[in-house]
Amino acid sequence: MADNLQEQLYQRLREGLLAGHFQPGERLKIRDLAAAWGTSPMPVRAALQRLVAEGALEGEPQRSVRVPPMTRERFKHIFQVRMALEGMAVEAAAGRLSRDELEILRGCMERMDIAIEQRDVQGYLTDNSQFHRVLYGACGNPVLLRTIENLWLQVGPFFNRLFTEADLSLRLNDFHEDAFKALQDGDGKAARFAIEQDLTYFGQFLLNLLELDFAQARSG
């Protein structure tokens, strides 16, 4: 029973990180989480320790952990690997997606459009996470999928910064729609290109934000 509860809490935290529900630098206190979830501290501590071991969280004094802050170097390194692996997963997934999975992708895009109009950050990030995970999940390679998810655990919290520029939101869904059309046609190369364009466009935007943060920190 305890192992099952620990797994549930671990998956809950993991889903939150993947969907960007936590902020870079945010501290997660064991007792606060246990109180919020109505459980004892022990399974919460075990779930958090698993995520620390995976590099998704980092340990802090006084029995707390935090979401690691993002740096320019760390983001660049993660981005390089994501480009290679996520492109590979998309191309492999084309032709393997079921009709139901394509409908899930369509639903995610429709809800993301609504979230963009309403400036619903968490709504957008939740469906964005589901879109990519369903898409990559069809690649048929569990090792590849797990590696991609581990990278997303590290960058998911930083995706919140996409909504710091009002005009950027107008393009947030364009590349998903291009990828979806290619996937409907079973065109893996075109779908891969669209997702790589998505990663490049928003990766550069986030990198620019990190450069600005660095410059402001130096001048301050």
Automatic annotation (TrEMBL):
Domain of life: Bacteria
GO MF annotations in UniProt: DNA binding; DNA-binding transcription factor activity
InterPro entries (alphabetical): GntR_C (IPR011711), TF_FadR/GntR_C (IPR008920), Tscrpt_reg_HTH_GntR (IPR000524), WH-like_DNA-bd_sf (IPR036388), WH_DNA-bd_sf (IPR036390)
Transmembrane segments: none
Pfam family, one: FCD
Residues covered by the HTH gntR-type domain: 3-70
PROSITE patterns, per database record: HTH_GNTR (PS50949)
Keywords of this entry: DNA-binding, Transcription, Transcription regulation
Gene3D superfamilies in UniProt: GntR ligand-binding domain-like, Winged helix-like DNA-binding domain superfamily/Winged helix DNA-binding domain
SMART domains, sorted: FCD, HTH_GNTR
Name listed for the protein in its UniProt record: Putative GntR family transcriptional regulator
Organism, scientific name: Metapseudomonas resinovorans NBRC 106553
Highest classification ranks of the organism: Bacteria, Pseudomonadati, Pseudomonadota, Gammaproteobacteria, Pseudomonadales
